[in-house]
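ok posting inputs for the glutamic acid job
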Amino acid sequence: MKELGCSFKIATSAPLSKTSKTERENRFPFLPYLYTMSKKVRVRFAPSPTGGLHVGGMRTVLFNYLFAKQQGGDFVLRIEDTDQNRYVPGAEEYIMECLQWCNLLPDESPYNGGAYAPYRQSERKALYKQYAEQLVQGGQAYYAFDTPEELEEMRTRYRTADNPQPQYNHILREQMRNSLTLGDDEVNRLMGEEMPYVIRIKMPAGEQVQLTDMIRGEVHFSTSEVDDKVLLKADGMPTYHLAVVVDDYLMKITHAFRGEEWLPSSPVHILLWKYLGWEEAMPQWAHLPLILKPDGHGKLSKRDGDRLGFPVFAMDWKDPRTEELTRGFKERGFLPEAFVNMLAMLGWNDGTAQEIFTIEELVSRFSMERVHKGGAKFDYEKAKWFNHEWIKKLPVENWLPAVKKIYEEKGVMIADDNKFIRVLELIRERATLLSDFWEQGVFFFQAPASIDAASIQSKWTEGKTAFFNAFIALADQLPDWSAAPLEAAFKELAASQNIKAGEVLLPLRIMLVGGKFGPGVFDIAAIIGKEETAGRIRHALQLL
Ligand code: GLU
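and the output
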């Protein structure tokens, strides 16, 4: 029997623990045969470290994580860095930081190791070649000696209106320099001369490959449509196609979840599983729907985010080659809980109208079968709605450090956490992004740099100046500097001076805050304190 990496579980619902050993043997005379094989669930996120982590990639992380946790399985992070031309320094560390920010931590990874290490394909290089050679020996792959010029010439020569990009496939391979066309002597001679070669899969002509996808059901491919993909490159490095299959096998992956863009490659992978003799161990597949532009036309790209003014990457990403900075959800002011919740709803729901889910709820309710086949439109307004809901839902202490950081980066040091918490509690209803806590709250910690005097100047009177001076004096005598007595004193004073409270409320707000915004004005006065309130009123009176 092939090694399947199985753990064994008793396949019975009988309460065995309540029966004695002999009773059990009587009831289950063939007990050993009642064990069924059930593999421990193992899933992987297998990014290539080529740049920022797109919302689509992050959703793949999440669905892998949810499934693994729900099934009591393992979540593996494997870095697919075999394409050295596309490798970008720092991208791998950045991916790990994104997982950390969202608290979707892998059980095994290049950082925390695991039984199947190493988890970086570049460190597994020596491992792949033997499998490519095995395929050549079995007649399912072949050596190809074509130079880049010869490949280019083939593409030019066979280009037609109907076939603008001729491929190295079951037809054209007959015209090329490979071990199928050259004969053994010539192949041996070229090998002897150390002529560079690649190994390509020999795609059969006219066969059907069938895939059972957990989201899409049965999917059929015609092998004639697929080109003879390179499996091993001239430098001995595997391509993604070979490495992904070998590593999924060696790492005992039971379920491979990845983006829909990989669906066209899946017939190559399925044939490799079969040709390498591992068919029984092949993982179950799910190809997650694309994330579409807000208008539903095409895949959401980083450029759409730049164009429409919203983040597409999980976290800020600075390309070390161009120094270009692309903004991320984290730095835009999203809470990880909200970001994760929003990701879950991109193409999935639990069949009810519920939209706000904790990670624990997601782990228990998630099912791949409920993921939609069709692409999920990205809606930034909805993403912000999730954030607003989570700002209201989570205890202030959870996100206080992130908001404090925003203040401190802008030069406002927070000395008194209790005051900060009072402020944050008061304005959280008004915040959609964490950055909103700056505009909505900075005036609690420093006087407004300017005030919108123009809004009140035209209706200003000497009587109002007198009123505010009287209010400062009256308030100074108040035994309790809190919102309710302040409001009562303010309104009584206005009534006694025949001024409508409404006519002095807006001026008070503008004096304290600078503009026509913010929470209850007496709450603001209560928090900033007696001296500061009086100071701001006096300062404003000088300007009016
Ligand atoms: N390395 C591939 C990527 O960058 C992984 C695809 C897969 O999961 O099979 O997306």
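notes: Residues 1-36 have pLDDT under 50 and may be disordered. The first strand starts at residue 6 and ends at 10.
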